[in-house]
Amino acid sequence: KVIIIDYGSQYTQLLARRVRELGVYSEVIQYDDTPSNNFGAIILSGGPKSVNEQDSLPLPKWVLESNKPILGICYGLQLLAKNLGGKVKRTEVAEYGKTEVEIIQDPIFYNIPKHIITWMSHGDSVTKLPQKYNVIAKTKNNIYAAIKFSNNIYGLQFHPEVKHTDHGEKIIKNFLFYIAKLEKNWSLNNFIDEKINEIKNEIKDKKAIIALSGGVDSSVATVLVHKAIGKNLKAVFVNHGLLRLNEENEVKKIFKDLIGINLNIVDSKKRFLNRLKNIYDPEQKRKIIGEEFIRVFEDDAKGHYDYLVQGTIYSDIIESAASGKNTAKIKSHHNVGGLPENINLKIIEPLKFLFKDEVRKIGEILGIPKHILYRHPFPGPGLAIRIIGEITEEKLNILRRADQIFIETLKEYNWYNKVWQAFTVLTSIKTVGVVGDERNYDYVLAIRSVDSVEGMTANWSKIPFDILEKVSNRITNEIKGVGRVVYDITSKPPATIEWE
Ligand code: XMP
To answer: Could you name the active-site residues (predicted)?
Structure first.
């Protein structure tokens, strides 16, 4: 396994993923974390700071003391240089973006051409090195692009993990297998078997409960833990009345009938809708739904459960660690049905070291239907935050049908998988129209679709006009109550993805 120390680069997750794609398990830690002891190599990530700043993140002592192979990238390289007798300075030329590098032969560049384009992003450079270290690649500006500190300690000024670096993957591969001599032994099949055993040994004949939302992460966690403990897992699906059309039946069909999971559907529609009566404020809506969810879940979990399974995944953890926030807090804020904080249960998070794409692959291996694994994200508060202002049954019915039409049409034109998230919003504003020869006064419905990676930033999707036209025609023809359809062309920032 490879330990990656995260110095705050936006590419750290990418780096961890590249290592795993090459068949070696990787774990991201912070510089002040204690590493587990069975690692075979260390990678130091890039980072936004200068190693010369007072509050720059240091190289922990154990790194050099471990005598393990080390690869420093960008900030990581400069940190190694600084700690091994070199000098790092702000140079006149800062290099950002694609930069040509000339390579001098070395095992880490095995099978790589003499001139390659690399991706750089640095203002500081290593300017001086003791003679015993070799510069093994340079840029045109004569800046050290790669340094060999010893037979197993290397630094790269450029980012091999980024696709813009030619042969970047090969360089990482050379480090892992020629320099660090690691074995290729990480695979998702192994992971599943090991995880199932681990969970079996931990839970034994005790009982566990999970809040199943029908989203990717909780679905995969449910099936994985079910494989380990069978009937002793109870999955609770809370229908808060703010779900999409047919959602409950869909989830029931898949988990109860297809996969045979002990699924408990809790119908709390009335409970939620009653509490949401006369509520207009988005934050208040979210708060009520969050609280109510936890109560429903607690009522159902009362007594007899020892474990709570959660579908936390790696990006949840890395992101929260990098921003210095505490994981539980982000989850309970961001995920309705997240951690009920005062519930007296031990937590099991079987997916917490996996990336989203790995979670999906595991889902496929476990036989979860693709349309569950590749569906768009859906917020915990559901349609409540897609109806501006007060929520009524009438509005919910309109929104459900509009959503269905939009999604169905995207799928029909093969656009569903091209966008990250698509949905409709009922604005609660009414405008004038004409139907036949009659005046009409009906709701404005907005359609929203965005392209994104993790939802932190997003661009509105450039969906072809003929698709938008079809969606608009179908919605105004088929749904009574909608008189006008508009397309939201705002990115995030400044807007958020959801309207509330
Ligand atoms: P925003 O609107 O913040 O949304 O740009 C970013 C992503 O998060 C989803 N979202 C939520 N998911 N509970 C969730 O589980 C929430 O309270 C929540 N609010 C927003 C949103 O659908 C988008 O994918």
So the answer is: 74, 159, 161
How many helices and strands (H and E) does the chain possess? 15, 18
Residue to mutate (ligand 1; options 334, 388, 453, 492; most atoms within 8 A of CB):
334
**Tell me, what's the pLDDT at 328?**
35
C-beta 241 within 6 A of ligand 1: no
Whether 393 is catalytic is: no
pLDDT beyond 60 at 186: yes
* 115 catalytically annotated: no
Task: Evaluate if residue 337 carries a pLDDT over 70.
Answer: no
Whole-angstrom CA distances from 274 to 241, 325, 345, 378, 398 are: 11, 34, 29, 22, 19
97 part of a folded domain: yes
Which residue, among 39, 82, 75, has the nearest Cα to 176 in the 3D structure? 39
- Domain assignment present for 75: yes
Residues 349 and 442 in one domain: no
Q: How far is the CA of 424 from the centre of ligand 1 (A)?
A: 14
**Residue 315 annotated as binding site:** no
CA count, 13 A, side-chain hemisphere, 146: 25
Q: What CATH number is associated with residue 103?
A: 3.40.50.880
Same domain, 97 and 224: no
Domain membership of residue 382 (yes or no) is no
What does the pLDDT look like over 52-95, one tens digit per residue? Answer: 998 899 999 999 999 999 999 999 999 999 999 999 999 888 88
Is residue 277 domain-shared with residue 419, that is, in the same domain? no
